[in-house]
Amino acid sequence: MPKISTQPQHNGIALIVEDEVTNRMILKALLKKHGYNVIEAENGAEAIQHFRKQSPDIIFMDVMMPVMDGYEAASEIKRLAGDHFVPIIFLTAMSDEKALARCVEVGGDDFLSKPYSFTVLSAKVKAMERIRTLHQDTRMLYSRMQRDEEIAEQVFSGAVIAGNVALEHIRSLLKPASVFSGDLMLTAFAPSHDLHVLLGDFTGHGLAAALGALPTSEAFRSMTAKGFAPQQILFAINNKLHDLLPTGMFLAAQFVKVDHQLDHISIINCGMPDCYLIENESMRLKYEIASKSLPLGIAPDIDFRDDFHHLRVDEGDRVILATDGVTEARDSNGELFGQKRFIEAIRKSDSSSYIMDKLAKDLEAFCQDAPQDDDISVVEVPLIRELLPGWESGSHHFVTDGDMPQNLFSHEQPDCIEFQLILYGSQLRQADPVPILINYIQETAGLHEHRRPLFTILTELYINALDHGVLQLDSLLKQGEDGFTNYFQQREQRLEALTEGQIRIGLRIHQNNNSGYIVITVEDSGHGFEFKTLSQHVTNETLYSGRGIMLVKSLVKQLKFFEPGNKAEAIYVWEDKL
Questions:
Q1: Tens digit of pLDDT for each residue in 31-81?
Q2: pLDDT value of residue 328
Q3: I need a surface site. Which of 46, 237, 269, 564 has the fewest CB within 10 A?
Q4: Residue 394 has what pLDDT?
């Protein structure tokens, strides 16, 4: 039969701080019965020395002692212990409520009244042991949570933030209320060299809110890279979030497309505070864009086309995007920063510097040390040439001078890939053929390095055929302060009413090792484009007619139109340098 040990279990080290020997002896005997090794101190100063040397697990502290009393000693021991839980039980015969309250204020965890009772002592010790165990478990879980958050933050930064572009020119103020921000800023260049910027605000903040940023950034970047229009990108993000997010969680967002010609922007506000277009020199608010559309993720299949604003801009203007964490930031008295202070900071900014510099200073001065309730995000997009990429990075691949390929018009059986796409009637309103064609070119011919120039050529020719050929829109509508707004409004109205007409796109791809050429033909069923007056239009830089076609001419070896102007043929030639 196994022997049962009569020795008490060792529960650690107990420190008794008491100036009366008799009280120490009685308490020591009781604690030894409870399985503790006991060390003793006659005053608070000795107690601190013992704590530093031996790290006791529990402390029994008298209040009134010479040299240093229990209040001062307890306060210092708690400071030395830091995050480590060391329970302090005050030994007292006092009934003064203020004195007892003082014991709690300096870090006391419980009281033990004199004379000592073994039953009461046992109960209090067991309670402290349970609390210590819970504290240790909590610290372990908190440490594990911190580690998980560090890993998640690395993934978040790599997947969401690292892919952003043009950050050397875009100025932002991003202050999360916790480790993770429910706000996100995404930027990416389209193949056309347009810049897409999205500022979003998920419901709440912290890790739960940040999780939605991963599918959002994936859809935003992949679709922007493929050349999809902003309304198509938002449509896809909205449906993805609607399927993934729980009820009550959504993404308020602002999306701006800066056109590569820097003559207009397209902007939408989905459940966010007003965003602004600021005139460069005067700091005047040219436009305030209020929320017109639902936030993303609330309802499926939202058509965002009619909610976009198409605004004429001048070089040097700025776009200001912001989440509600800015206007709802509080000072120590609970007063909100508000929209009035926000706009005042914009108006009083120096036109030679970033608006963000003035705004950040005003916001910091207002909030000071007040707690931050929500994520704060502001983005300033300066509409300058340096913001957008040039063609220099890929200019050595495509050829615009020299002789035409000899076999271009050969009647022999060509060694090539040839296909065509025809869109009829309402499909011209619903479909965007350019990303589909670019993807097909890359899949069949592998011309990944030529995505951007080919996208621009196809886009400009297709838009030319649709707008001027089928829809019969006049580019002169773009003139004036509200010209782009009027132009795009008429475009949407005519597209909505479109029931007939067609555009035919043909591609013939010839490849030979590291060189080749593509013949692109675009033909519409309308009256065509006034190509004969093209040179007259482009001599006036203030007009908005023909500039896209001139860009195409700079990217291809040959561009020609056929009478009456409803058919264009562009020949793109490349020679990759090894």
A1: 888 888 999 999 999 999 999 999 898 999 888 888 898 889 999 999 998
A2: 93
A3: 564
A4: 46
Compute the mean pLDDT over every residue in the chain, rounded to the nearest whole number: 85
DSSP state letter for 519:
E
Q: Can you read off the two tokens belonging to residue 320?
A: 């200001």
CA distance 55 to 488: 75
Per residue in 276-287, pLDDT (tens digit) is: 999 988 899 999
Pairing state between β 12-17 and 58-62: parallel
Pairing state between β 36-41 and 12-17: parallel
The pLDDT, as a whole number, for residue 524 is: 93
d(CA 378, CA 321): 6
| Amino acid at position 43, single letter | N
Please state, in angstroms and rounded to a whole number, the distance separating the CA atoms of residues 304 and 328: 27
**Axis-axis angle for helices 70-81, 44-54 (nearest 10):** 20
Helix (H, G, I), strand (E, B) or coil at 504: strand
CA 176 from chain center: how many Å? 11
DSSP per residue over 136-204, as a string?
Answer: HHHHHHHHHHHHHHHHHHHHHIIIIITT---TTT-EEEEE-SSSS-SEEEEEEE-TTS-EEEEEEEESS
**Reduced 3-state DSSP string for 534-575:** HHHHHCCCCCCCCHHHHHHHHHCCEEEEECCCCEEEEEEEEE
Tell me the mean pLDDT in the region 467-482. 85
* CB 103, CB 90: distance < 8 Å: yes
Helix spans in 246-335 (H): 324-327
As a whole number, mean pLDDT of residues 394-413 equals: 60
Residue 396's pLDDT is what?
46
Contacts of 69 (CB under 8 A, 6+ apart): 44, 63
Q: Which residue has the tokens 């309304």?
A: 231
For 287, residues 6+ apart whose C-beta sits below 8 A from its C-beta are: 276, 277, 309, 311
Do the beta carbons of residue 367 and residue 337 sit within 8 Å?
Answer: yes
- Total-model pTM: 0.75
Task: Give the pLDDT score at 49.
Answer: 93
Nearest to 60 by CA among 100, 87, 96: 87
In this predicted structure, what is the pLDDT of residue 315?
92
Tokens 């500039």 identify what position? 547
CA distances for 82 relative to 78, 86, 223, angstroms:
6, 9, 51
Q: Is 217's pLDDT higher than 50?
A: yes
- pLDDT reading at 405 higher than 70: no
Q: Are 242 and 297 in contact (CB under 8 A)?
A: yes
Write out the two tokens for 190.
Answer: 């389209």
Q: Around Cβ 202, how many Cβ atoms within 10 Å?
A: 29
